[in-house]
Write a structure and sequence with these properties.
The chain contains 11 helices and 25 strands. The protein is of the alpha+beta class.
């Protein structure tokens, strides 16, 4: 299709109702699109042969959703709402809290804003310029600013901010056009103190980052409330509108209230009832949808609509599959331009102004992308040797994992019994247990058998000490 225009739909927090999603699909189809694409900030993209601003305005105003054409002037608000009920999370951070925060952003944000639970590992924490990270204190949030013209690593504000006041922080920074200022973080903080009156609490404990272990998010899985959730992914990030229409209609029929988009160019449907599960499986089969892609495929972040990056991903997935290796737990970015915000543990970076098919290979400190600290593993390498180097790097990752040894009660009992100082008389089966000693023979508790006098005799049959044998209690 000859594309004239690219429509970008802002799905705040990655949350959209099936009915609203269906309206987006219908207008995309009306404007000549056959596919939708997802962006890394939980937005929707579709190409159009012809644009009609009148039709677009009418549709998106009806569903209270913003859009833009051919520009990336505004930013979508990213959230970890999608991980509720399917991944670990703060007990106090409920659905209504996310909705309250997101709905209070009643203006179009030019700054990237993240609203994220740090307990989960599917949605990145620090890809925003303003990052609100849930603390352990109910309704209070860490605030991390990340303006690359100041420094690449996030800067933490020295207090927690109340849920109802998060939008005040973001709005104040928007109104002052902070990106156009030559301020450092101290000056930004002073400005916020003067212009954003917010409820705060002192920071009493450090933010604990999630373990760098990427979850498998595709297919049908059981939720915590005896319902199911379904994760869907297309390897090309080209989602057929005809298929998506059938999925949204199925959501409406089965009373699924929300669809959530991921930063990994995929989406999740939660709240599927047991009685409806078979129907969902039949629908997936009808459209030939693969629900069991290899983990080699699911953990990649690519720029949207970038054929060079997509071709390289396909090449590397094929090569890694031939080598029969696992990259489970790792995540990958293909960086073809300088304006990509990194949030994966491994980065394949195109060499700027270099020869074709030349790349650098980087990894994040401790393989945790939330540390935002990247190091080179290899430079100026041809794509033909990328796969073997990724295998090497994955082995470094697995070697770095340290399992916390937790001894089960059963194993502990066995181990304690093995280590017990217990001897048994071979003549009458009487047991000497060092834990109790033999008070009648003036042997105090805690006396090891080997320290008993040579004349010690069995209290039952009078047998010699030499007639006792070490007991095995396994």
């Amino acid at each position: 299709m000859q594309v004239k225009d690219l429509i970008r739909v802002f799905v705040k927090g990655g949350i959209i109702s099936p009915g609203d999603f269906l309206k987006v699909l219908l207008i995309a189809e009306k404007l000549g699109a056959q596919y939708l694409h997802f962006g890394s900030r939980q937005d929707i993209l579709f190409p159009a042969k012809e644009k009609s601003k009148e039709i677009l305005d009418e549709t998106f105003q009806a569903i209270k959703t913003e859009y833009e054409i051919n520009t990336f002037h505004y930013q979508n608000i990213l959230s970890s709402y999608l991980t509720l009920d399917i991944l670990p999370g703060k007990n106090w951070l409920a659905s209504h809290t996310y909705h309250y925060i997101i709905n209070h952003f009643d203006y179009r944000t030019k700054l990237r804003v993240n609203v994220v639970d740090p307990s989960q590992s599917l949605v990145p924490l620090f890809t925003g310029q303003i990052n609100f990270i849930a603390s352990n204190q109910e309704n209070y949030w860490f605030v991390y600013l990340r303006f690359k013209h100041i420094q690449n690593t996030p800067w933490q504000m020295p207090f927690l901010v109340y849920t109802e006041d998060l939008v005040k922080i973001a709005r104040a920074l928007e109104e002052v056009d902070v990106l156009d200022k030559s301020w450092d973080y101290k000056q930004i903080f002073e400005y916020l103190n003067d212009h954003a009156k917010v409820n705060t609490q002192p920071v009493t404990e450090n933010l604990v980052l999630p373990e760098p272990h990427f979850p498998y998010y595709e297919g049908i899985h059981r939720q915590s409330d005896e319902k199911y959730w379904l994760g869907l992914y297309w390897r090309t990030n080209q989602y057929k509108i005809s298929t998506l229409k059938a999925i949204m209609e199925r959501c409406i029929e089965t009373e699924v209230g929300k669809v959530t988009l991921t930063p990994w160019k995929s989406f999740v449907i939660k709240g599927i009832l047991e009685k409806d599960r078979l129907g969902w499986e039949k629908l997936m089969g009808k459209f030939g949808m693969n629900l069991r892609h290899s983990a080699l495929e699911l953990n990649w972040h690519l720029p949207a609509l970038d054929p060079e990056a997509l071709d390289l991903k396909f090449f590397l997935v094929r090569e890694l599959d031939k080598l029969d290796v696992s990259t489970y737990g790792l995540t990958f970015t293909i960086k073809t331009s300088s304006d990509i915000t990194l949030f994966t543990s491994v980065v394949i970076e195109k060499v700027e102004n270099g020869e074709p098919d030349m790349y650098n290979l980087l990894y994040s400190k401790s393989f945790n992308p939330n540390l935002t600290d990247y190091h080179y593993y290899a430079k100026d390498i041809h794509k033909s040797v990328l796969a073997p180097l990724i295998v090497e790097l994955s082995k470094v990752y697995y070697d770095s994992l340290h399992e916390q040894q937790v001894e089960s009660p059963k194993v502990k009992t066995i181990r304690d019994n093995i280590e017990k100082d217990m001897y048994q008389c071979v003549h009458c089966q009487t047991i000497y247990d060092a834990e109790y000693g033999d008070p009648e023979a003036s042997i105090s508790a805690g006396t090891p058998f080997k320290q008993l006098p040579t004349e010690y005799a069995c209290p039952t049959c009078g047998g010699n000490k030499s007639g006792f044998q070490k007991m095995s209690l396994v």
